[in-house]
Amino acid sequence: MIDTKGRPNRLGIAGWLGGGRWGFERYLYTLHRLTGLGLLLYFVLHIFVTSSRALGPESWEAAMGRVSGGIFVLGEYLVFAAFAFHALNGIRLALVELGIGIGRPIEPVYPYRTSVHAQRPLAIGVMILAGILAVVGGFGFLQ
Amino acid sequence: MRDQRLWTWHIGAGVVILVLLGLHMTVMHLDAFVRVFNATPEEPIHWSNVVARGRSVFFLVSYVLLLGAALYHGFYGLRNIVFELNPAAALKKAVNGVLVAAGIALFVVGTWAAWASFQFARVAG
């Protein structure tokens, strides 16, 4: 975790959500958090629902019956789309953490390209892949 | 130093999740394109497929690994988000305690379910 000592999050929750003028990657950060929280909530519920398989087929069928229908299919698809985004953006974050895809450090002699410009293609690339995965996964839910 | 170690585990858990949840999503939701680990032509959540996967040692191990990795990754991520609001030291301690207790409790429930369904599937043949 980044130590925020001396640099407090003065904006509070608004500071989490608002990207200001910090660009595309800052909104990916916000969406990464929102999808992470959504996936965590779903995962906790998923543990309890799928635990019913330990009690046999009747218990499993009853549990699946309780979470079937249009609204649950839509919700499950949103979870899949959130997974697609969070996974692909997570790969980008891990690559950036390792210094991959962000360009070499250069002397800041005007006019210079910032690190943000250097890593933008990576961000756009993983978002295109996430979009393709979300669309491909969507076909499965339409069946 | 401790936070750096926890952060490294967070990324490591993310890699484990990427592989195992990727496989889980492929089995459960991409079956129209890639049909793996679905022994019968029924839907992936049909009991016949669930019990077939349930008797596999590979799935028993991968479910427990995924459970542990996802709980750690998720709860550590939640902890980071909450701590960014700079709560008081006592509140930080309470948040740590609640998240660790909830994580362990959920890990026990999920591991019991994986083990019990493994035993059930083995007996059911």
Task: Give a written overview of the molecule.
The complex is a heterodimer of chains A (143) and B (125). Chain A is an all-alpha fold and 143 residues long. Chain A has a single domain (22-142), classed as Fumarate reductase/succinate dehydrogenase, transmembrane subunit (3 helical TM bundles of succinate and fumarate reductases). Chain A has helices at residues 13-17, 24-50, 57-66, 70-97, 115-142. In chain A, helix 2 (24-50) crosses helix 4. The termini of chain A are far apart. Chain B has 125 residues and is mostly helical. Chain B has one domain: Fumarate reductase/succinate dehydrogenase, transmembrane subunit (3 helical TM bundles of succinate and fumarate reductases), CATH 1.20.1300.10. Helices cover 79% and strands 0% of the residues of chain B. Chain B contains four helices and no strands. Chain B has helices spanning 2-29, 47-54, 57-83, 89-124. The interface between A and B is large, with 41 and 42 residues.
What key attributes describe this structure?
heterodimer, A: 143 residues, mainly alpha, 3 helical TM bundles of succinate and fumarate reductases, 5 helices, B: 125 residues
